[in-house]
Design goal:
Helix content is 44%, strand content 23%. It has 13 helices and 23 strands. The chain is flat, with a radius of gyration of 37 Å.
């Protein structure tokens, strides 16, 4: 018992000694760093560079990943559309041929002409046949299968040969292309097979049943599609050299591509997940990372298009770049050690830069106040009209604009969106607002106002920036609206009926000085509400990059219309819905909303 206490005491003493030693080392390290600011700077810079390198590597990896997925999706979609288009042509052709055969059943020999025409008029079809049920034409025997096939002669000429293919040695009545269409009473694409008697090639066959006047199935019209053509299609448009593509049936039989370990691994994954439209990152048996994409062909088929590519083909250059970056980082740290002694001078420069930045930030805040002051009062309300507008810039200053004022019993209003963001857009926005005020002060034709603003905006427009603008002039006595649209989103009429205002497709201002703008007119009923907006509404994005979209916008506006909300209530409701949708996501574009409610008092004297 005494020995145990002694051992415990020794253990506690050793632990305390180690803790004390660790604290002493830490204190010594802190003292060294305090006395050697250059060393501290180097260590901090090294850590910063490593963190930056890691962050940049992560970002680059994500960008390359997204790019790879988009490129492969585009390639697979292009192949999908080519295959689907060809299959649709074959399906439509045979469905039509089934009706032709049904009308010509009285003439057995005419079936040879029919199959000949089917092959002759459809280059995608390698061979075509009409397979009749046994003994349908007793004089033709038990099997009757008129067949036409496209042949290439040794000298390169293409001919079409017609034969009676059905026989005891070629009993088509047991073939999938005959039995399944009859059993299912609809079109069907067969599994791939070697047609040794007819096409003399690997084919897949589409068959559709033929019915007589009593509705009974009497034959199947079939068309052979060469697998060689499918091989050529899936081999096209490869961005990555390691790309391997395969086309398989729902039973996992190979239609196109070369069988091998990659296909077997993909099929195993497809069987496991059962998801015909998906993307997976896997490791093959050799331990190499691969990317596998699945996409269904659809239509009358159960086919699946598969793409497999090596991870090294996608990220190999990035990994090499990282290695080079690490080497350069090391060299940079050595160079940093050489220039540490000049830190004091650089600190002074840094103070000057910070002062300049603060000055710029201050100027931007002033610019924001000036820009906001150029806009009209947020709310205009009188006996004839109720107007409410809001502008929320994505940055300190923005490129959206709206304006309205009343002159000679008419409401002049406009809304616009300058291309781009930031200071250049804000300058063009200010110019456009001033031009609108200037030209609208003595002209009440929106088309002429738009034309004048466009000519001024095009003058010396070296930046090639442009503005989408909608200009309207509403006669408050009659409700007659004159308007002109320059490439902007069409306003929404909320009441009495929900609709979009019809707008001609003019180009935005600032592109071509010779552009002509046409005047449009409409009559507003008493109680009509117009809603105008910029694309910052429909293109507002949440953190998952999902757009707010027109469907959500229209749903919100319809609810506002049903509740007969005022313009201010409409703007607040829409703004709240956008904020609820994007949540904490950073605002991606300027958001401008304008609502006008026409409420002319019919009892008012002229």
């Amino acid at each position: 018992m005494v020995q145990t206490k002694t051992e415990t005491s020794k253990t506690k003493t050793n632990v305390n000694y180690r803790d004390s030693k660790s604290q002493n080392l830490w204190e010594r390290l802190k003292n060294v760093l305090k006395r050697n600011l250059g060393l501290t700077a180097i260590i901090a810079a090294a850590l910063l560079l490593e963190i930056t390198s890691g962050v940049m590597g992560y970002i680059n990896h994500a960008v390359i990943q997204d790019t790879m997925e988009n490129l492969v999706d585009q390639e697979m979609n292009a192949i999908f559309y080519r295959i689907r288009n060809q299959l649709s042509k074959v399906e439509v052709t045979l469905n039509n041929m089934a009706w032709v055969v049904s009308d010509e059943l009285a003439e057995a020999d005419s079936m040879f002409v029919t199959t000949y025409r089917m092959v002759e008029n459809n280059p995608a079809i390698l061979g075509g046949t009409i397979s009749f049920i046994p003994n349908y034409y007793p004089q033709k025997g038990y099997w009757f299968e008129p067949y036409a096939v496209r042949r290439t002669t040794p000298d390169g000429r293409v001919t079409i040969e017609t034969i009676q293919l059905g026989s005891a040695s070629h009993d088509y009545t047991k073939s999938e292309f005959f039995t399944v269409p009859i059993a299912q009473n609809c079109g069907h694409w067969s599994e791939p097979y070697l047609d040794a008697d007819g096409a003399k090639a690997m084919v897949t066959t589409y068959g559709t049943p033929v019915h007589d006047r009593r509705g009974e199935t009497v034959a199947v019209v079939d068309a052979d599609l060469s697998l060689e053509w499918l091989d050529k299609v899936i081999a096209e448009e490869k961005t990555y050299q390691s790309t391997n593509r395969f086309l398989v049936t729902g039973s996992h039989n190979l239609l196109a591509g070369e069988d091998g370990p990659e296909l077997q691994a993909a099929l195993k994954l497809l069987k496991t997940t059962g998801n015909k439209q998906s993307y997976h990152k896997v490791k093959n048996e050799a331990g190499k990372k691969q990317h596998i994409f699945f996409q269904p062909v659809g239509g009358m088929t159960d086919w699946v298009l598969i793409t497999v590519l090596d991870d090294s083909d996608v990220f190999g250059n990035l990994r090499k770049t990282r290695l080079i970056l690490y080497v350069l980082t090391g060299l940079g740290l050595l160079f940093l050690g050489f220039i540490v002694y000049r830190t004091s001078r650089n600190l002074e420069n840094l103070r000057r830069v910070n002062a300049a930045k603060e000055r710029i930030d201050s100027e931007l805040r002033v610019a924001n106040k000036i820009q906001m002051s150029m806009l009209p009062e947020q709310h205009l309300h009188n006996d004839e009209v109720d107007v409410f507008g809001s502008l929320t810039p994505a940055r300190e200053v923005g490129g959206d604009l709206f304006d309205y004022f009343i002159r000679d019993g008419k409401l002049f209003f406009c809304i616009g969106d300058v291309s781009g963001k930031g200071t250049p857009s804000a300058m063009l926005m200010s110019s456009t607002c001033s031009l609108f005020r200037s030209y609208a002060a003595h002209d009440d034709n929106p088309a002429r106002i738009m034309q004048a603003i466009n000519e001024a905006a095009c003058h010396k427009n070296a930046t090639h920036m442009f503005v989408t603008v909608f200009i309207g002039v509403l006669d408050l006595q009659t409700g007659h609206l004159c308007y002109c649209n320059g490439g902007h989103d069409a306003p929404i009429i909320l009441s009495p009926e929900f609709s979009s205002l019809t707008c001609l497709s003019h180009l935005p201002i600032g592109l071509f000085s010779t552009m002509k703008y046409a005047l449009q007119e409409a009559d507003l009923n008493n109680g009509t509400t117009i809603f105008l907006y910029t694309d910052g509404l429909t293109e507002a994005m949440d953190k998952e990059k999902q757009l707010f979209g027109k469907d959500r916008m229209e749903a919100v506006l319809k609810r506002c219309a049903e509740q007969q909300q005022s313009p201010e209530e409409i703007i607040n409701t829409v703004s709240e819905e956008v904020h609820r949708f994007v949540k904490d996501a950073e605002q991606s574009d300027d958001l401008t909303l304008l609502a006008i409610h026409y409420q002319y008092n019919t009892g008012k004297k002229d």
